[in-house]
Amino acid sequence: MVERELLPEVGDVGAPRRTRILAMARHHARHRPFYRAMLTGSCAFPMTRALNRLFGSLITMEGLREVFGDLDEATAQDLAALITGGSGTIVHDWLIDADDPLDPEELADRLLRLSAVLTRGHTTSLAPTPGGHPR
Prior knowledge:
- By secondary structure, the chain is mostly helical.
- The protein contains seven helices and no strands.
- The protein has helices spanning 2-10, 17-30, 32-40, 44-56, 61-68, 73-97, 104-119.
């Protein structure tokens, strides 16, 4: 269900990053009861792995190398796992602990701020747009 429902919403790599992240946050907010149950029950481990695989599929090795330079394959994969796992933890905590109603805009902004910090000094392609949001 996760890949079938979520990938079409966030899988358009041509869409601006904020659009994709906001689509992901809105999806999770709409289905909060499902994700809360899946992430706190006996199936939490396989669900977390499925979400990490899905989010990880949106990170390309070329994109990492564009931002961080010439990375060997193992380092690029480890960096993708680090980014995916950390982002997943933030989404997980937001789904479980945030007050109702969930604010997808706030989550998207949090994740984009972290992305900007991680890539600061590495690239200008993630610079804020005229509206103030990173691309």
